[in-house]
Amino acid sequence: MKIFYLIWQYCIAFPIMIISTIIASLLVIILSPIFGHRVIGSVIPRAWGWFFCRLFLLPVKVEGKENIDPKQEYIFVGNHQSLFDIFLLEGYLGHETKWMMKKELGRIPIFGYACKCAGFVYVDRFSRKVASSMNKADSSLRDHNSLAVFAEGTRSLTGKVGAFKRGAFILAHDLNLPIVPLSINGCYEVMPKGRFYVRRYPIRLVIHQPILPEPENPDDIVTLRTKTRDAVLEGLDPQYK
Q1: How confident is the model at residue 143 (pLDDT cuts 50, 70, 90)?
Q2: What domain range includes position 87?
Q3: pTM here?
């Protein structure tokens, strides 16, 4: 069965993945100026993420959808195991969300410009001058968008959770927005960083209850980061803790 799954990937799934990404990107670029990035930047990426999980025949389970209110803005913070984290959250989170994403993705032809048109926020991970990115994220949140962040800043090399950066928690504190921790299980086995084929493995997303900021607390940013990371760890399988 493994050999047939590899043949499926390289002969069918990956070519379809590339072609459909180009088509989805072009649709976002063309339709966003007409219908606005709030609608187009949510509907098309959601279909794109769901389709890729189905294309690679991945079993997906989502827990805790009842914890989020579709009318509320959030900052979603999750662990980062794999490229497939993005497809999982786009396809199955079920909430209109923009992304904070690394600046390097903006250099991908067509796709990078489509992400900009969709209202996503690029972050330069290697620059100390992050004020511009933070201001764009702040503006996006004030425009009644939710924001999704991988707080580790990059994919884990081992599947285990690394340290969380401060950016998302500063935004939550400044704007008094709830943080929703997300625990992603199984995507590391599907396609870890540096591997160029997919392993069929069950993936599971746990959506935790929102964590409310305490603006009057002088240590609120540290407290938010600690509580969020603890919640993410709580929803992970033992091998990822």
Answers
A1: low
A2: 2-240
A3: 0.90
Kind of pairing between the strands at 203-207 and 179-185: antiparallel
Specify the number of domains making up the chain: 1
Which ranges constitute the DSSP H helices of 36-144?
A: 37-55, 84-92, 111-117, 131-142
At which residue do the structure tokens 């959250």 appear? Answer: 89
Integer Cα distance of 75 and 146 in angstroms: 6
Higher per-residue confidence, 26 vs 141: 26
Strand order in the sheet with 60-63: 60-63, 203-207, 179-185, 75-78, 146-150, 97-102, 121-123
Contact 106, 116 (CB under 8 A): yes
Place of tokens 């709830």: 178
Angstrom distance (rounded) from CA 78 to CA 99: 12
Side-chain-side CA neighbours of residue 3 (13 Å) = 0
Q: Residue 34: in which H helix or E strand, if any?
A: helix 14-35
Distances from the Cα of 241 to the Cα of 22, 89, 169, 235, 238, angstroms: 36, 20, 21, 9, 6
Residue 67 DSSP label: G
What are 174-184's pLDDT values in tens digits? Answer: 888 999 999 99
Q: Is 24 helix (H, G, I), strand (E, B) or coil?
A: helix
C-alpha distance from residue 115 to each of 61, 74, 109, 232 (Å)? 27, 20, 11, 27
Question: By the 8 A CB rule, do 188 and 74 touch?
Answer: no
Looking up residue 86, the CATH number of its domain turns out to be 3.40.1130
